[in-house]
Task: structure prediction
Amino acid sequence: MISFSKMAGDGGYFKVRTMNLSISPDSDTLMHEVAQRLLALCRAAIETRGAAHVALSGGNTPRTLFRLMADAEFASLYDWPHIHLWWSDERYVAKDSPELNFNMADTELIRRVPIPPGNVHPTPVERTASDAASEYELEIMHVVGRDAPASAAQMAGTPAFDVILLGLGENGHTASLFPGTLKNLPPGRLVVAHYVPQVLMWRITFTPHLLNAARHVLFLVSGAGKADIVQQVLHGPYQPDVLPAQIVQPAPGDLSWMMDSAAASHLSQR
Result:
């Protein structure tokens, strides 16, 4: 576990964050360690509250992880009847589009494990973008709020996911929180639909309010192409509108960054 300070734009200290940082020698080892970490967190949640609510990330990085979780080595270890799967962000595209984050997870993981259909909670992209966000927010409040209510130390009235898995884009975005878009988020919302100019697409995303209510947030980062942005997010000035991943600071939840040595290769260059 390491601690580090974020510098505010005026040169003063913004805050001190404590997080767990795990660096694996290669991508294959990383995916095994993440699968084991998710397994342990799910088991702990089920033992404590009877269910584990896990929000998955999109993009290509978790594809290998999902395949591994569905393979014989791990699939039988997860207590699928007590695990619920959600998505921290989704592309607003047709339900049968290969760009839909759900469809990748469905192909690589969901169809290959004995998870009850009622435990899988895709974003309702068949609605309008605004209605999809509102409906997903209500479902989260009802289901996650019932099974995983926030503790007194967490955000009152905000459902607390047991685990939120996030990725990191080369521009510093996470979920569908892109540079320059945070100021457009309505206060107090858990899920929103917003247009992302960088990708010319509407996206449906968890807000920082919901992300930071989680019990555990786990960033999964792989590859040398992410080395520069990892360095900027973890050791650069605190400027979340430029580097939105910096705004993810669950309190009093646990923040973990798990990456391979290629992604972490610039961290020593302070």
